[in-house]
Amino acid sequence: MKTWTNLVMILTGTFILAVSVEYFILPYDILSGGVAGIAVALEPFFHIDKTLAANAMVLGLFVIGALILGKQFALNTLLSSLAYPVFTTLLARHPVVITIDPVLASFYAGLLGGAGIGIVMRTGASTGGMDIPPLVLHKLTGIKIASLVMITDALTVLLGVIAYSLDWALIGMVSVFASGVAVDRVLQWGQGNSKAVQIISDDWMKIKEEINRRIDRGTTIFDVKGGYTMKDRKVILCVVTARQYGALMEIIHETDPRAFVITMDAADMHGEGFTYSSPNI
């Protein structure tokens, strides 16, 4: 049942993102931070249909990400990367004319797009697109992902200034800001800012390794004794962001469906990975 729920959420989130692109970003030439914004910025230079350009970038980046980032990345982005061009193509054939101020169009584009991305992320999956270049460059160069994201966004804004004007690029920043807020709110819906998760399992070593490998989180191991059996056991303590919680539960379920899991809200986190970045991230 959980798998089907995740599939529905991924398709729903991707469709909402496609609505944002086809009904707001492309008609109003909004210079957002995603592939649609890049397509808008490139259109004056190459005169390629914006929907076609955005779809081509999504599929191209997916292939690059799958080749460089591996199988797990490909599985996490496959459905959204394939559904996105289908949805945008269908919506482009049935346009809806919405006449509003460009600043409002940018704001609504960001809210809708961010909500769609957040819904997909809640399943532990990714929409791919412009998330991929920073991840690829991080793997190849070791530069921090946060720095690479900032560089990517800055280059996108610069391209927008060259293609249109500074005013138009600033309007696009409204979309970027609104999208970030929407993603954050959707990921935190019904959850605390972070989760402190305790896991008791005979497969604790494998779970610990998968947590380190797949979501790049550290763990703490406690020695405990079962009150009923009096057996010595291991407890894994792992603190994750709201975005990573779905991926963590997926790891536990895949490794040991019988694991005993306790989850608590951790609303005030300080330290590595939360208020400052690890040198290896």
Quick structural overview:
The protein has helices spanning 2-25, 35-46, 50-69, 71-93, 102-122, 132-141, 145-163, 166-188, 204-214, 242-255; strands at 194-200, 220-225, 232-241, 260-265. It has 281 residues and is an alpha+beta fold. The chain has two domains: 2-188, no CATH class; 194-265, Alpha-Beta Plaits (2-Layer Sandwich), CATH 3.30.70.
Q: Tell me the domain tally.
A: 2
Q: Indicate the percent of residues in helices.
A: 55-70%
Low-confidence stretches: 275-281
SSE sequence, one letter per element: HHHHHHHHEHEEHE
Q: Would you report the number of β strands?
A: 4
Task: Give the quaternary arrangement of the chains.
Answer: single chain
Determine the number of helices (DSSP H or I, runs of at least 4 residues). 10
| Euclidean distance between termini CA atoms | 34 Å
Large-scale geometry: elongated
Mean pLDDT: 85
| SS class | alpha+beta
Largest beta-sheet characterization: 4 strands, antiparallel
Report the C-alpha radius of gyration, rounded.
Answer: 21 Å
Strand proportion, as a percent range, falls in: 5-15%
Which strand order does the major sheet show? 2-3-1-4
Plain-language structure description:
The chain has 281 residues and is α+β, with helices and mostly antiparallel strands. The chain has a four-stranded antiparallel beta sheet. The longest helix is centred in the first third of the chain and has 24 residues, at 2-25. Helix 2 (35-46) packs across helix 3, helix 5 runs parallel beside helix 8 and helix 7 runs antiparallel to helix 8. The protein is built from ten helices and four strands. It is elongated. It has helices at residues 2-25, 35-46, 50-69, 71-93, 102-122, 132-141, 145-163, 166-188, 204-214, 242-255, and strands at residues 194-200, 220-225, 232-241, 260-265. The chain has two domains: 2-188, no CATH class; 194-265, 2-Layer Sandwich (Alpha-Beta Plaits), CATH 3.30.70.120.
